[in-house]
Every structure is written in structure tokens, then in C-alpha cells.
Amino acid sequence: MAEEKNYDVIVLGGGPAGYVAAIKASQLGGKAALIEKSKVGGTCLNRGCIPTKTYIKNAETIEQMKKAKERGIIIKDPSFTLDMKKVIDYKNNVVKTLTNGVEGLLRSYGVEIYPGEGILLEGKKVQIDGSKMIQGNAIIYAGGSKVSKLPIEGINSSLILTSDEILDLEEIPKQFIIIGGGVVGVEMAEIFNVYGSQVTIIELCDCILPMMDKEISMGLTSKLKAKGISILTNTKLEKFEEDTDILRCYLSSGEVVACNKALLSIGRVSDLSGLGNVKLKMSSGKVKVDEYMRTSIEGIYAPGDINGKVMLAHAAFKMGETAAQNAMGSNVKADLRFVPSCVYTLPEIGSVGLTEEEAREEYDICIGKFNFAGNGRALASQEAEGFVKVIGDKKYGEILGVHILGSAATEMINEAAVLMASEITLEEAAEYIHGHPTYAEAFMEACADALGQCIHLPKKNSK
Ligand code: FAD
Predict the structure, then answer these.
(1) What global pTM score does this model have?
(2) Does the annotation mark 436 as catalytic?
């Protein structure tokens, strides 16, 4: 075994939680090491956020081309084909640019990168690839997550893919079944539908995106159905059967649906492969942490997907930063109350805070709504689908939740999150001057509507 090297902070895992933690620890004057068994950037840059968004942009471009005629733009031959090799190359180039950028950042801060699998051992030691051993004053265990598999018959068929493989598929499946109508499932449904597949989503719950505000979920359901995507809710997948190039999916309804490829998108579980002989307290298979990202063992922190608190890249950034600050001697909490959720469908979804259903259980609420059909920028852009819904507390005017279905929803939701975190009331939010014409005006109008004061909505009949 090679000689031990000592660091202030050792980060295990180079995804959004890990690489941010390593940079932050360095910024705070720490000597930091980062161990990554696959590629720096983690799920987000290599297999998640960025590749999927590159693909959704292709889908959006195709939809825009199809809609151009309505605007008087005549494209001579409106048919299109996808050169999947080039589509994949383009996606890989975007990924490479970003992962190179992150590696460059880490180097610029003097973080020592160890490629290889790290195993966490007692005494804040980490063994790398069974040979090197390094030791830290603090450990940041940011191993992230991996796809979860269904323990059912036929699951090992090569026709069943996960999000790890689907974005390198060179042939678009004619019949494509998506198991799980969560965020990954609906984004893939949107992409593959536009790319030319006949898509069916199979969802166990009574609606797709079951954790979202019902009105948003129903709104997206009708948009997806209108595009020809089949959605089977309240449906359990019982088993798969492979028959040469065809996969049969046996459903709880008694129906059997066939496809050329299926995507398993039923969620993710913590990747605990790096946990050696260290006995960290767990909660439902995830590493248990407090708001400071502290685990049950002093000096070991676990930010990001591995703790399952909020499995999103931007939440992982914040948790990684917090872990590094605390590892370097601070005492700060990661405030995850106002983390926006973004779904990159066409139209998009942006959501923060309580759903209407959750808010009703706790508060006397008021609701404001503004449709993009009344927004100048949206109409001019041929993006007038959807709405902004604001949920407020009647008594104090607190903004409890904001849910947006619309073309710029994932950008707009950041304003709502910032205002909510700043404890800005509905009244104050409705007063801020917004640029015109912008999609964001619809948020201001929805806040005013919650107060019954929206200028650009007709007078409401008093009951
Ligand atoms: P990860 O990104 O999983 O990184 C963990 C890293 O640790 C990995 O690189 C892994 O190789 C490494 N590692 C694990 N164990 C070891 C070990 N023993 N030794 C060395 N290295 C190890 N989130 C969003 O916010 N927006 C999106 O649009 C979005 N889209 C997504 C799309 C898909 C298809 C998927 C799957 C996820 C998406 N996510 C999105 C979620 C997002 O990718 C994760 O929340 C985020 O990557 C979590 O960051 P992390 O650092 O905690 O973990």
C-alpha cells in the first residue's frame, strides 16, 4: 500500500454535490482531494440534467419548425429526419465542454483529483482502487444515486433500458414504453414522441407527476395526450416477456402492451458502493444527515442525492457547499425549503413551495391564476399554452406555492423561489414592475389575481 497523504477535506464523488464541496473547501483555504470512479460532473453532467436538456432542445426545435407555417414562415420541405449519430455527438460535445470546465475549475483551485473508486474506512481514511490510501480531517461523502430496478420477471431483458443508456440509442424505437411517469419519464416521453416513437407511459399512481400540484399534472397530461402519447395510470407492471425483438409488458389491468424498447424510470436509490467499514446511520436506504449535512459520525458529511433529501442538482450544489463550509469549521444550515422543481417538457413546468392540496390542509388559502393566453410575449412567441398559479395565505398574504405550466416556466420559477425565501408577500410581489413584454409578467398578474386586483383580467362577479 502506498504512503498515506493527508488533506483537510476528502470528497468522495465528483457530481454536483462533490465538486462544489471540493471547490468551496479550497476557497476556504483547505487542502482538498476529490475521488471520482467514473466521470467528474456525476449524473447531472454525464447522464442527467445536461444530456436530457440537449435532447429536449432538439424536440423543441422540431416543434418550432412544425409551427412555423402558422406564422407565415414556409419551410419548403417540412419533413425531417434525425441523424442520431450526430445528435449523440452534439450531446456528447456539450457534456464534454461542461465536464472539462469543471475539471479546469477544480484544478484552478488546487483540488487534487484521484480517478478511481474510493472506499470509506474508519479513521476518516479513504482507500482508492484498493491501493492508495489517503486521510482527511473531514470527509464529504457525495456518492450520489443510481437507477433503481424493479424486482419482477423479465427485468433483465436487453430491451429494457434506463436513463443511463437511453441517451446513446442510435435507433429510435417505433413503440416505446416508459415505466414511471415521474420527471424523467415525462421528459423522455416528450423527447421520444417528437423524435418519432409511439410512446406509452405506465404509471402506478392516479396521475403522472404525482408529487406536483394536481392542476399542473392534469394540465401536462392533456398536453401530452393531445400529442398522441398514451398514459395509463393506476397501472402496475406485473412482468416482462421478451420475444425476439419485441418486449411484452403485462399490466395489472390484464392488458398486454408490446414495444421495441422500454425505459425503466421508477426512481433512484443512493449509491452506497463507497461505504466500507464505516457504520453511518441510515434512513430508508439513504445516509441520514441533519440540516448541516452532518452524518451520525463526527467529521463525515453526506450532501446530495446520497441523503435523498431533495434529489436535484441545484439542491446538491447547495448541500455540497454547506458540507464544505461546515467541514472547514463553520456552522451553517442548508435551507431546502424553497428549492424549485423544474420539468423540461413542452411546455415546461416550474414549481416551488406547497401544492394547492398541501396548502389547503394547513392554511386558509387564496389562489391567483393567469393564463399565458393573456400574456403578450407568450402570444407573440406562439407559446400561449399554460398558466401561472399562485397560492397564498389569506391572513398574512404569504406566498405558499407557485406552479407554472408554460414555455418559460423553468426560468420564471426562480423569481418566485427568491421572493418566497425573502418572505415577500403577495401584495409586494404584485407591486414590482416587470419588464414588458415578458413571460414573468404573468407571475405578477397571478399574484395580483390572488388579491382580486389583477388589471389584465376581467372583473369577477362578486358572489
Ligand atoms: P451524482 O451526480 O450521482 O454524483 C455522484 C458521483 O459520485 C458520481 O459521479 C459517481 O460516479 C461518484 N461515486 C459514487 N460512489 C463513488 C465511489 N465509491 N468512489 C468514487 N466515486 C464515486 N436534476 C436537476 O436539478 N435538473 C434536471 O434537469 C435533472 N435531470 C435529470 C435527468 C436524469 C435522466 C437523471 C437521472 C437525473 C436528473 N437530475 C436532474 C438529478 C441530478 O442529476 C441529481 O440530483 C444530481 O446529479 C445529484 O448530484 P450528486 O452529486 O448528489 O450525485
Answers:
(1) 0.97
(2) yes
